[in-house]
DNA sequence: CTGAAAGCGCTAACAA
DNA sequence: TTGTTAGCGCTTTCAG
């Protein structure tokens, strides 16, 4: 069917009504309440609409009137496109998208560039609620979201007092991983972690910075480690913890190198994400070390790539997190007090962790 | 002040203006045109706003007034969550997200479930334009989008006459791949392709169905194959072409099995996507065939997993497609006539294609 | 089953 | 610099 070449006269519901000689209500009903008018009249309305090129009720005007946007906003701290590079973020998105789809709701990715402090996009977003995924607790975008008078669900955040949240017990999960390493005999370890705050610090981290970290998830994981190792007499202040701003395998590799340079005697390299761990894995092998014979490497997240690499890690249900966040937000009808969903995690015993070799003899003759 | 209300009616720009004893314009200006009023007055406005809990101008009302939503809609044929499983789709999304981010625009994922014919979500989407990614040409959601009076860019679609589009030359790319196989000596081949229409047909495909395929991309790829092989005397009607509705490795494996059952003599299995090819690869190996010694397997797309598997395939710039689509849409200020962007592809010679046994003299064609 | 009236909350000429 | 005036396009009681 050829489309007419005429300039689209922006037909409105009112002009249609005028053309038909009926009231606006009737036209509105033709679209929204078919049972409120005779089939015959409805047919006439719809057919005249087509003839006039009336595209149906304007969604924005309808939203204004009904106070419903039919979409939820997703705020990510990273560049919008980052979400599509990190497998964990993709999993979260998938789960959230699933929940939205079930509810017939749109999902609006809000462009919140962490570099600029431009919060306007948050204000401009026509949504019925927000999901905030893993942003620093001092992020201005988060503050802007919390000021919007719509329900919000935060993910991987500390208790904000007033909003629903979903997450895992990062501290306990990491503590369990640490216990595992401790039981294997590791005492001298190094750590590679993701960014702890909005400023770039591709270097070692002081204990103060660890405790003051603005990324709840990273803070909790480091706390879990510190607690576990301190409990067996390790002075956590002496443990090299290397931070990286960019969450890439290259960063993981560089941080691993930095840690190994600082203390070549470590028997385990604990990474706070699988991506970093995969990078670290590459780096230690590049240096001729065997894993786990010469050094143990661990991750966190349980992404597929990690599984393929046989990484010892903690698996968390990223997709479920997204879905739970969506459900929480879309159910918020019955919301009375803030709700919190904590999902469970699982220690994955891969092939990258083993007991450290204490002696040269052991090194020669193997297990 | 004698305000003893307990239920605070959500403050509006008007109520703020009243409270301050200024006009609504002034308040509006305080937010949108700071240079249009004295800093002092602006400070007062903003501060009173905070006190009253006024969250700033309502985005929907603003959109209605300015006729700008600040977002573009993305229509995918698959379940919303599907987009996060297919690497090619993720790449496209990443590119599109990048373009949106550059423009400070939101990206709304429209829930368009292909099962239901529920087009309402398209009508409900408050967006300034649409990007339509790889949907069948008879998809009602696509029709609904085209009826909306906003600019639209389609991706991987035939020429719709009136809208911008971006894509690759699928037919030429597949033709080139076919030529490569032909020069290696392949004449007896089988094909595995993605769904060709909205109805499920997990079976062989007739030539008619091939030509009438509603998915432009698949139709073009099959046409490229048919043309190349016909030109060397192969009767395309005798070539087994197995279609699969679901785009998964499992589907690829099943389709490969079906083709091999039909004609165990084929020397090459040509798949119209990498995902299918990876599944086919698994299946032929499961059957004890070596690749490429016993059989050649090829894909299409050039996703990372394919590269890792050494698949012979066609690489297309999926991320660039997304970015180009976004740019086209967001530039549509200067749009006069429909524009089309065709990106280039590259034949990737992996390790899964070689001459069929018995035609050793063709091996000079090289690595 | 249909219509009249009353906004939803905001912005943008244009005046003052 | 500030205010006045008109809507943006639609939905929704509430009467008839």
The count of β-strands of chain A is: 12
Strands ordered across the widest β-sheet of chain A: 2-1-3-4-5-11
Greatest interface and its participating residue counts: A-B, 53 and 52 residues
Roughly what fraction of the amino acids of chain A lie in strands? 5-15%
Assigned CATH superfamily of the largest domain in chain A? Response regulator
GO molecular function (chains A, B): DNA-binding transcription factor activity; transcription cis-regulatory region binding
Organism (chains A, B): Saccharothrix ecbatanensis
Domain HTH lacI-type (chains A, B): 11-66
Protein name (chains A, B): DNA-binding LacI/PurR family transcriptional regulator
């Amino acid at each position: 069917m050829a489309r007419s070449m005429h300039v689209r006269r922006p037909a409105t519901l009112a002009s249609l009504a005028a053309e038909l000689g009926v009231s606006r209500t009737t036209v509105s009903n033709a679209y929204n309440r078919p049972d409120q008018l005779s089939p015959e009249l409805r047919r006439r309305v719809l057919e005249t609409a087509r003839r006039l090129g009336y595209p149906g009720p304007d969604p924005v005007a309808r939203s204004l009137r009904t106070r419903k946007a039919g979409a939820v906003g997703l705020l990510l701290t990273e560049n919008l496109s980052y979400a599509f590079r990190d497998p964990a973020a993709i999993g979260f998105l998938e789960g959230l998208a699933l929940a939205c789809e079930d509810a017939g709701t749109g999902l609006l990715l809000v462009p919140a560039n962490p570099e600029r402090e431009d919060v306007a996009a948050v204000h401009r977003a026509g949504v019925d609620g927000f999901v905030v995924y893993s942003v620093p607790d001092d992020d201005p975008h988060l503050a802007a979201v919390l000021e919007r008078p719509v329900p919000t669900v935060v993910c991987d955040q500390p208790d904000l007092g007033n909003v629903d949240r979903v997450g895992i017990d990062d501290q306990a999960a990491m503590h369990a991983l640490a216990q595992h390493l401790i039981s294997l005999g590791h005492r001298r370890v190094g750590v590679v972690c993701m960014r702890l705050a909005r400023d770039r610090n591709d270097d070692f981290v002081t204990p103060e910075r660890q405790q003051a970290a603005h990324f709840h998830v990273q803070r909790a994981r480091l706390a879990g480690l510190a607690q576990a190792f301190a409990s067996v007499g390790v002075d956590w202040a002496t443990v090299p913890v290397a931070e990286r701003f960019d969450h890439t395998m290259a960063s993981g590799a560089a941080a691993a190198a930095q840690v190994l340079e600082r203390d070549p005697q470590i028997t385990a390299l604990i990474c706070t994400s699988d991506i970093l761990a995969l990078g670290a894995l590459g780096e230690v092998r590049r240096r001729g070390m065997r894993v786990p014979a010469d050094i143990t490497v661990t991750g966190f997240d349980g992404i597929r790539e990690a599984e393929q690499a046989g990484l010892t890690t903690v698996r968390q249900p990223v997709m479920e997190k997204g879905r739970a966040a969506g459900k929480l937000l879309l159910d918020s009808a019955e919301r009375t007090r803030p709700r919190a969903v904590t999902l469970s995690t699982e220690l994955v015993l891969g092939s990258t962790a083993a007991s450290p070799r204490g002696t040269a003899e052991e090194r020669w003759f193997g297990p």
